[in-house]
Amino acid sequence: MEYEVVIVGAGPAGLSAAIRLMQRAQAAAQELSVCVVEKGSEVGAHILSGAVFEPRALNELLPDWQTLGAPLKTPVTHDDIYWFNNAEQARKIPGIAAPKTMHNSGNFIISAANLCRWLAEQAEGLGVDIFPGFAASELLINDGAVAGIIIGDMGVDRQGQPKDSYTPGMELKAKYTLFAEGCRGHLGKQLINQFKLDLDSAPQHYAIGFKEIWDVPADQHHPGLVVHSAGWPLNDASGGGYLYHSEDQQVVVGLIVDLNYQNPYLNPFEEFQRYKQHPVIRQYLSGGKRVTYGARAIAKGGLHSLPKMSFKGGLLLGCNAGTLNFAKIKGNHTAMKSGMLAAETVADALFNGDLGGEDLTAYASNIKNSWLYTELYSARNFGAAIHKFGSFFGGVYNTLDQNLFQGKLPFTLHDTTPDHACLKLASECQPISYPKPDNQLSFDRLSSVYLSNTNHEEEQPCHLRLKDASIPITVNLAKYAEPAQRYCPAGVYEIIEDEHANPKLQINAQNCIHCKTCDIKDPSQNITWVTPEGGGGPNYPNM
């Protein structure tokens, strides 16, 4: 199938690009064929975000969003920001003593998944073809330029042989292909490597973000209340927690753990379970019922970790490039803006006779001349300060930088060590003892994965590929106590013993919730996450 523009990923960036392309086509009275492919079973199935949403980009994209019924129903009414001293004590931080980027007046507590479902409706109404349940598995490259994508085969067994249900993959050809796969995109990673897009960039940095949705008693629910915290339980890592009071007597709670932590015994999932036991958080969750669980990697390196975002035949959008503004803990509005700028760049080219396959370097100029660049520039030191100085003193630095100097201090902090290279040897670290789940506020991983509605066709090739099958035991287990069995939020990786009592790595790919943490944090960079059959993975209802 041939289109003028193919977009990979029906997230905020991809759908905003699709909408803006059709808006430009209508304004120019031009015909334009655009399609969006989405690996989730439906639009929104793989979308996970906090999310406090800043409507700036939406105001530009669809100014009449309120009339159109956008699912922005809960305006933020109040911000509470805490420093957790320990498991029982906390100090509320006055608003003036916190970075102004943490204040959320004018923003909304939303379900990003539901926002994407609504954006998809707007795009389809403009004539965009959207194909959920189809995974873009390979790049089409002609004469050094991206010419589209290949949809993965469906109905193959573990050895890659066709089953009775076999359906061959399909080529989707395009003049330009926009890659909006989200953080650590499978094809985005290939593009960065193949075209050396990160040659002049600092390493990208990541965190893993957890999220649960709870139904809570009415007297514990305060619609519009936003709670952020730093400090405990992350004694061995940087990051922070959040709790948002959304609509329908629900609360969303989560923890963000930076993936540059050093202790291989740290278990981000267990840190999240401990977090919910703190009195500040417990007061809102006690007596409630957990209804959904999920986790996702977050690209948080900021401005200096952005790769070159254009190459022959295509563009990188949103979190696939790393446009999240970590100073705000927000990436949806920046992803949307990058998608809109990408669409305008492509439209300008196509409507002026471009035949496709060019390196649209105007995209970089359009970004630099937009508020997206201004935001990322002012936040350029935020993450590096926390990595260098720790959560407390990094927070003090960021408060001064953001509040007094508007992010314009005349120097730049850099963090040049990739996250996977930060792990110390197990022999240099102390194991961490985590409490057993109480099944009221804290839970085990498998019962949590159940709430993510994750499913994969079991008879298919494993989508978690090892470059060297011996490394998990000979290197990762021997040196680092195999951290994969702890950093994975879904229990995918286990060390078991064979019949001769020899340890081996077991991969439970069925459990995978597509967070990409293994692809990022493996100290040997031995794991490559590739797309499973379309429709596999989590099925988040309204994350």
Explain what the structure shows.
With 543 residues, the chain is α+β, with helices and mostly antiparallel strands. 26% of the residues lie in helices and 24% in strands. Strands 1, 2, 8, 9, 10, 13, 19 and 20 form an eight-stranded mixed β-sheet that branches. A seven-stranded mixed β-sheet has the order 6-5-15-16-17-14-18. Strand 22 and strand 23 (503-507) form a beta hairpin. Helix 1 runs parallel beside helix 3 (112-125), helix 1 (12-27) runs parallel beside helix 7 (332-350) and helix 7 packs across helix 8 (362-368). The radius of gyration is 22 Å and the shape is globular.
Identify low-pLDDT runs: none
Write down how many β-strands occur, each being a DSSP E stretch of 2 or more residues.
24
Number of DSSP helical runs: 14
End-to-end span in angstroms?
32 Å
- What fraction, in percent, of the residue positions are helical? 25-40%
